[in-house]
Amino acid sequence: MTTNPTRAPRVRASELTGRGWLNTGGKDVTLADLRGKIVILDFWTFCCINCLHVLDELRELEERHRDEVVIVGVHSPKFVHEADPDALAAAVQRYGVAHPVLDDPQLVTWSAYTARAWPTLVVIDPEGYVVATMAGEGHATNLAILVEELVTQHEAAGTLHRGDGPYVPPEPAATTLRFPAKAVELPGGNLLVADAGHHRLTELAADGETLVRTIGTGERGRADGAPDAARFSEPNGLALVPAELRATLGYDVVVADTVNHLLRGVRLADGHVTTLAGTGEQYMVGGPDNGTGTAPLALRLSSPWDVAWSPTAAAFVVAMAGNHTLWAFDPVEGALRHLAGTMHEGLVDGELRPAWFAQPSGLAADDGGLWLADAETSALRRVDLTGRFDGTVSTAVGQGLFEFGHRDGPGSEALLQHPLGVCALPDGTVALADTYNGAVRVYDPAAGVVSTLATGLAEPSGLLVVDGGTHLLVVESAAHRLTRLPLGQAGRRHDGAAHRTRRPVTEVAPTFALRVVFTPASGQKLDDRFGPSTQLDVAASRPGVLLDGAGSGTELERVVTLAADPAQDGTETVVLSVTAKAASCDADPAVEFPACHLASQDWGIPVRVVEGGPTELVLPLHG
């Protein structure tokens, strides 16, 4: 185990440079404008589920310290679509970002602060010096401690200036729907929409426009009960309960209540909402174990994004975008089980549990399994179930975390861009909401070919066959509407550009020492009272490349051996997935009931094996 409580030398913060600002009333913001404030830079991109988690983690800190702290979102895009200023403006409103946002499409400020991962947090003190950098999510506790220290220190020194910051909230447009996510057709023909931006469910008439009723107060929160009392937080996925189970279960629709990390049940007769699964706390990769039980209300979820009833599994399959897994919820047995995925992010096929996913966000079930929109790998995946909870995963379209575009043709060559929805069509083909391409794509499993059905859509995120199978209903999220497309027309071929996101690659020797350096929060120390206080887990994105050093252990240091570059030309990279956690408690022995905290972090590091390369890789873990 390695700890390093020393602080780095004081470094002056770099200026905030980009294309423009949002949430400032049209004004530019400089570091000089923020002098006297504690500034937290949040480097994010709106495709990234970990970045969305951090937005939610920051809400309480932001509200509690609004007079002393200014959070600045620095949007540094991964996908081409995210560099569109209109798309960014929509995302800022969609996710309720209540602080200034710097548009940094050329990654100028990202590079100035040497950010290497989404998300990254940088803390700047009131005198303009960088005092901490933290990668990943789960730093709320450490941030809160650090902010309190800085408030005390700079208030005493007279360098803290209280008062309003530069945030100016935008004026939201009055629309029936606001950033809708998915929709289902109800037994009577009406449409129920996950109205994510309004934090509610909205029922529309069959025309997709006429408002029938709303379920939920429309305010972000978590509450069960009647439709005028229930609360959601950015609900996304919806699934009808099979007709034969509705009376027994007492609810008709299952809702993926994404930011609340819950599954909710809705009774259509009166709109009553109840919680079916989840504790309301996020399951963190590397965090406390969820245990081995299957009781749904005792298990933590992580951003469930979609849900679909699988006849083969006789359960609702849940796309758990937050930790890159699939789960199965059996409402009759009252059990929730991990179905597929390792919680490592990537594109690895094979048996269900060892497979890797990347923000699974859309599901469509059929008699043999499920189709899956795997957003961050821009992929269409297939889950073939050979039993209720056994089977295999394969990739129909998609090449990896950093390859994307709009290109039709054979599935092995076709490219998507962050798809969020999928739908099985009556003719046996599969429709995809190709969200960041603004398109609906069609995959023909028999021919293995992708074509384009429609373009020019505003972030389509959900699809639904309606009108007796003659039309496809598209949830156009960024246009706040539902759109009908006729089915039966031939798709057309689109040969657009191919893109590859270049993350900085870390060169390593074939055998190197991996060291995680743990820095406990101020006033805390490692807690070994109940056994080892640390854990390290290592995996690689390609089978067979990690020759030694894989798996879990209690030491934060490990020797890792990787296979030589398969291409022998120095171009091949592999993503090394590292998860570390460390438990720490109050260091003062006089404290009878010490406050304790579990620090956890996961990294996805592109590495290239180079003979004579560095023999050590050091990663920081903050308490």
Could you name the key traits of this structure?
623 residues; mainly beta; Glutaredoxin; Neuraminidase; 3 domains; 7-stranded mixed β-sheet; 5 helices; 9% helix; disordered N terminus
CATH architecture of the largest domain, by name, is 6 Propeller
Fill in the CATH topology of the largest domain: Neuraminidase
Main sheet: which strands, in order across? 1-7-6-3-4-5-2
Structure summary, number of beta strands: 44
Distance from first to last alpha carbon: 14 Å
CATH class of the largest domain: Mainly Beta
Give the name of the CATH superfamily of the largest domain: TolB, C-terminal domain
Pfam families: NHL, Thioredoxin_8
Domain Thioredoxin: 2-152
Organism: Georgenia ruanii
Protein name: Redoxin domain-containing protein
Characterise the protein shown here.
With 623 residues, this protein is mainly β. The chain contains five helices and 44 strands. It has three domains: 8-172, Glutaredoxin; 180-284 and 295-423, Neuraminidase, CATH 2.120.10.30; 503-622, no CATH class. The strands form ten sheets. It has a seven-stranded mixed β-sheet with strand order 1-7-6-3-4-5-2. Keywords: Repeat. Residues 2-152 form the Thioredoxin domain. InterPro entries: 6-blade_b-propeller_TolB-like (IPR011042), NHL2_NHL_rpt_dom (IPR045302), NHL_repeat (IPR001258), Thioredoxin-like_fold (IPR012336), Thioredoxin-like_sf (IPR036249), Thioredoxin_domain (IPR013766). It comes from Georgenia ruanii.
